[in-house]
Amino acid sequence: MLNKLPSSISALLDARANGHSLPAGLYVREDVFEADIDVFFHNHWICVGLDCDVPEPGDATVIDIGKTSLILLRDDDGEIRVLHNVCRHRGSRLLDPGKTIVSKLVCPYHTWTYELTGELRYAPHMGKDFDKECRSLKPVTFKSIGGLIYVCLSDNPPEDIAILEQAMTERLAPYDIRNAKVAFQTDVIEDGNWKLTMENNRECYHCSANHPELCVSFVDLDFGFDPETLSPEDREQAEEHFRLYEERTNAWESDGFPSAAVEQLADCATNFRTQRLIIAGAGESQTHDATAASSKLLGHMTRKDLGDTHLWGHNSWNHFMGDHAVVATVIPLSAGKTLVRTKWLVHKDAVEGVDYDLDKLTDVWVATTDQDADLVARSHAGTLDPAYQPGPYSRFSETNLDKFASWYIDRMRAHGY
Questions:
Q1: Would you give the distance in Å from CA 311 to the centre of its chain?
Q2: Residue 68 β-bridge partners
Q3: DSSP-derived 3-state class of residue 383
Q4: CA dist., res. 292 & res. 356, Å (int)
Q5: Which residue from 276, 331, 392, 314 is spatially nearest to 69, judged by alpha carbons?
Q6: Which of 10, 78, 149, 248 falls 20 to 30 Å from 31 in CA-CA distance?
Q7: Which of helix, strand or coil describes residue 1?
Q8: Phi, psi at residue 98, to the nearest 5°?
Q9: DSSP state of 20
C-alpha cells in the first residue's frame, strides 16, 4: 500500500533520503510552491535579465516573479535601474508585462508621474502640503555582473554573491555582454515544477538519447559517466578527453582566460558553478556543425577556439562562446508551470543575414529547449502519479542533482521550514 504524503512542508523535507530525488510533495504541492517563491525567489539572488535588454535610455522591460512585478530600465543618464512596478498612490501597476519605451513612468490610474530614477514628480490634487520626497518608487537591490542582472528582494541579501561576482567579472569581460545585442528570444512554458527544470539542466545523463543537435558540440562525458560500463575503446576515448581538458585548461589560463571550474553548490546561499568547457567537433560554437554562427565575434573576442564558458545558478544557465551567447532564466509560474526564457546574444553591431544566420544561431538551443520541455513534463507527470517514489541519483552522472536537492533542503530549513 502506498504511503500518504506527509502533511507539513517540514515533514516533506525530513522525508528526503540522501542520494535520492525529492518527495513528490516538494514538486507538486501549491503550498510548497509558495514557500519556494518566498525562499528562493525573494530571499536569494536570482538572475532576471541583462543590461542589453534595455540598451537605450527609456528602454524598459517588466519581469513578474510570483506576485512581485519588477521594472528593469535604463534612465536618462544611461544607468540601469530596477524598480518595483507598484505606484506609491494606491498600488496600481505602472507598466504592463513585456518591453516598452518610456520618457516617464506614468501611472495609468491617476497619472502619478515618476522620473526614470523612480522619483515622484507629479501627483495631481494631493494638496500643497503633500510631500513627494517620500513617495518615490521602491528600488530593488541588484547587481550587474558582467552584464547579467541579479536581483534580491530581501532586505538582507546573501553576501556570498561576492564569490560569483569575483569569478564571473573577469571571465565575462572579453565577451562584453553589457554591450551585446539580443538577436532572438523565446519564452517556453514547461509543464513541470521549476526544480525539475533545474535538475534536468544540471545533468547530461539524458543528452545522448534526447539531444542529437546539442551533442554535435556538447560533450556529455563532461558531467559524469560510469567507467565500468564503457568499452575499452570508449574508456580510452574518455581518458583522452580528460587529458585534453587538462591541456586546454592550462593553455587557456596561460593566455589569460580563466577556465578551471569554480563552484559553490553546498553550505552556501548563492548556488552557482562555472567552467570553460571544450566544444566538440569543429570546436567553435554550439551550432549544428559546431562552427561559429556569427562572423563578428562577441565583445573583444578575437578567437573562436576558447570553448564554452558555462555558468549556472539556481534559476539560470548560460553559455558564452566566441561568436554568441545563450542566456536562459527560469521563473516559476505555479507548482506545475515554469517559464524558461532564452536569449541569444551577438555583437551589438552584428547584422542578421550579413554577419550571422538566425537559424544557425538558434536552431540547436531551440530544439534542445523544446526537447527538455517534453522531458520535464514527463517527469512532473510522474511525480503526480501515486506510484511515484523518490529514486536514486546516479553517483556518476547525477551528483550535481544530489547536491542541488541537498542545498534546496538546507536553504528551506534555514528559512524556517
A1: 9
A2: 65
A3: helix
A4: 9
A5: 331
A6: 149
A7: coil
A8: 105, -170
A9: B
Q: Is the dihedral of CA 258, 330, 189, 102 positive or negative?
A: negative
**pLDDT single digits (tens) 229-278:** 777 887 787 788 788 889 999 999 999 999 999 999 999 999 999 999 99
Q: Write the pLDDT tens digit of every residue in 134-177.
A: 999 999 999 999 999 999 999 999 999 999 999 999 999 999 99
Residues carrying CATH 2.102.10.10, the chain: 46-157
Which CATH architecture fits 46-157? 3-layer Sandwich (2.102)
Grid coordinates in use for 391?
529514486
115 neighbors 12 (Cβ within 8 angstroms): no
User: Could you report the per-residue pLDDT of 201-214, keeping only the tens digit for each?
Assistant: 999 989 989 999 99
Where along the chain do the CATH 3.90.380.10 domains lie? 1-45+170-417
State the amino acid at position 269 in one-letter form.
A
* CB-count exposure of residue 369 (10 Å: 0-12, 13-18, 19+): middle
Nearest to 26 by CA among 199, 180, 167, 172: 199
Residue with cell 556518476: 396
In whole angstroms, give the CA distance from residue 84 to residue 72.
Answer: 9
Half-sphere exposure (Cβ direction) of 311: Cα atoms closer than 13 Å: 23
Q: Which of 291, 195, 202, 283 is nearest to 244 (CA)?
A: 283
The answer to whether 244 and 157 have CB atoms below 8 angstroms apart is no
172 burial level (CB within 10 Å; 0-12, 13-18, 19+): buried
Name residue, grid cell 540522501.
18
CA atoms 46, 49, 50, 56: torsion sign: negative
Whole-model pTM above 0.85?
yes
